Amino acid sequence: MRLLRRQHIPLLATVGMLIVLFSVASALYPGFASLRVVANLFSDNAFLGIVAVGMTFVILSGGIDLSVGAVLAFTTILIASLVGAGWHPLLAISVALVLGSGFGAAMGWLIHRFILPPFLVTLAGMFFARGMAFLVQAQSAVVSHPFYDALGDLRLQIGPKAYLPITALLFLLVVLVGIVIARRSRFGRAVYAIGGAEASALMMGLPVGRTKVRVYALSGFCASLGGVAATLYMGSGNPAMGSGLELDAIAAVVIGGTLLTGGVGSVFGTLAGVLIFGTIQSALVFDGRLNSWWLRIVIASLLLAFILLQKALARSASAHP
Amino acid sequence: MKTDSAWKAISTWFGGGSIIWTLLGLALLLLVDAVWVKDFFTLEWRDGHLYGTPVDILHQGSKVMLLALGMTLVIATGGVDLSVGSLMAVAGAIAAWALTAGGMSAASALPLALLVTTLIGSLSGLLVAVLGVQPIVATLVVMVAGRGIAMLVTGGQILTLQDPTLRFIGGGYFLGLPFTVTLVVALLALTLFLTRRTAFGLFIEATGDNETASRFCGVPVRLVKVLVYAFSGFCAALAGIVATGNIHAADSARVGEMMELDAIFAVVVGGTALTGGRFHLLGSLLGALLIQTLTTTMYNLGVPPTVAPVPKAVVIVLVCLLQSPVFQARLRTWKKAKTPEVTA
Predict the structure, then answer these.
(1) Range of B319's domain?
(2) Total structural domains within chain B
(3) Does residue B273 sit at the A interface (CB-CB below 8 Å)?
(4) B121 and B190, same structural domain?
(5) B133 touches A at CB < 8 Å
(6) Gap from A160 CA to chain B (nearest CA, Å)
(7) Residue A292 has pLDDT above 80, yes or no
(8) Within this chain, do residues B220 and B335 fall inside the same structural domain, yes or no?
(9) How many residue contacts between A and B have a Cβ separation below 8 Å?
(10) d(CA A262, CA A193)
């Protein structure tokens, strides 16, 4: 029972941090504590959140994926140019999702088959996807199709003047599916096992290689789904989009209580991490005096604080087994 | 016989073999340039300076070469430094701030920038060595924070500068070549001296090879780690000052963007394994030259700069595969399986 509680400390700290941050911001800025701000937290950070859910699985398995920002950009510009060429949006989206997942699977195969360091392979993947994005189309392009506009206008009213647009709904759906996969599927269990101790997972007869390939495929899928959300949010595709997104996603995952060494963490924590990220960003916008580069410094400090908390917990756990 | 042993001495001095592939790659690229790019090797002596594409490659590649020297030592200890690009921006921002708002002369502004940036760099070393944070994470924190600090120092603006010393460092000529070439040679000499004439190099290799064993042998593992990250910060500061002098402005948002990746790439292509324990300083410089030649070649062939990362990515994966023991083993078994068929 004690061990269970100790494992939950990072997650509790994250949720506590989110509540404290939101309360402080509500006290400081009039109008912050409204349903509309909450709804915007979900819609403004939808594509970051979707990408972060995929990243959670990669980090849980003990890896890292630096290519997500570039894959997202590639997806947005691919959809924009395919729709521009007269394709039906649904077909364009399907092609983009298949390409994103396939690209992730290829990276996972290289990492597993040739025992290459994940950060180097996904770094190369980032260069590759970014370059390919510019090869598809060098300028940003508007996605204009009646079906796409109708899709972008879909929204759920949750209160007076507060709407959850389709991007936010997509984000919540991905989080729910992510939680189910992590906690209720064989694949999820294998991911946790590999991240905890790969050699043991192998000896237990878990399909280590297949799971690793699937983890990167899932992250590639989430990155391109994030790209779909981004086109719906912006109404356009841009090959330069999402640079630095991989770092924001990693930060959200770590702040959400997932250990970077793998094996410990949760998709729900990542949701909280993304919302913390969004709350700080909204608070900076509400304030208006502080510049946006404070976000970087605050995020870095939070990241450091959470890593140190995890270190302290790991140390106390090994001191009292 | 004598030349043989001399060659051996030289190659151990630089870290032994395996730069042959880097040299081959570079030679192959230069061959492509010689055939397809017009006037690639044309050098011209004008106004006491040497002009031409190869000189340009040396000048443009100098920033990555400076970063690669520091990165080599970090990777040799089994770590990696993702913060160098941000630290370049920090150094540029501090130098620009000290010269304009601070009213300092270059003689005090540049050492200040070098010192502060080196201290910030050693911060990731402290995180890694004392608190046991993984290198990727520790330097990621410094990378994210560093960019914010640089923006804070310049107030989010691009500070333009007209300081003659800074301009000379970034774009001046010395002995007929860009001054940056002298800077790289000087830093290489310093690094070689530190690692091959003192015990520091041995300590780095020992730490990267087997940290626990080194600690039991009395190697000051923690100190070594802090020092390599500090040195990497120092190299990043130099590169940042060069970049700032080059464009006569401190652009905190863009200076050094993605440079950390080029630096890691240069080190890996140069034959230093990411697992640590061995390093090739000269190989890293050749790796940096290889990237710059690749970039310049693609520009000359009319490939848009934004698409240029694609071939770079392919080269990274190929080099990684060539270095992977699994791939080498498969290649060997494939050859063995193939040979009997040919003879039969």
Answers:
(1) 311-344
(2) 2
(3) no
(4) yes
(5) yes
(6) 37
(7) no
(8) no
(9) 116
(10) 9
Topology, domain A2-319: ABC transporter involved in vitamin B12 uptake, BtuC (1.10.3470)
A296 vs B148, B314, B321: nearest CB: B148
Q: Where are the domains of chain A?
A: 2-319
**B126 located within any domain:** yes
Region A303-307 average pLDDT: 82
CA distance B150 to A143: 36
- Look at the alpha carbons of A296, A299, A304, A307 in this order and tell me if their dihedral is positive or negative: negative
Task: Answer whether A239 touches B (CB < 8 Å).
Answer: yes
Q: What is the pLDDT of residue A128?
A: 93
Give the chain A residue whose CA is nearest to the CA of B312: A127
In terms of C-beta density within 10 A (0-12 exposed, 13-18 middle, 19 or more buried), how is residue A247 classed? buried
Q: Report the length, in residues, of chain A.
A: 321
Mean pLDDT of B114-122: 94
Q: How far apart are CA A126 and CA B312, in angstroms?
A: 11
Nearest-5° Cα angle at A290, A231 to A29: 85
| In a shared domain, residues B56 and B192 | yes
What whole-number distance in Å separates Cα of residue B53 and Cα of residue B61?
A: 12
Which of B82, B124, B144, B251 should one mutate to test binding to chain A, selecting the residue with the greatest count of A CBs within 10 A? B144
Contact A272, A16 (CB under 8 A): no
Question: What's the ipTM?
Answer: 0.77
pLDDT digits (tens, 9 = 90+) for A233-289: 988 999 988 877 888 899 899 889 888 888 889 999 999 999 998 998 888 888 877
Is B261 part of the contact surface with chain A (CB cutoff 8 Å)?
Answer: yes
Distance from CA of A300 to the nearest CA of B (A): 5
Burial degree of A231 (CB within 10 A; 0-12, 13-18, 19+): buried
Quick one: B286 and B317 in the same domain? no
Both B298 and B317 in one domain: the answer is no
**A159 and B CB contact within 8 Å:** no
Mean pLDDT of chain A: 88
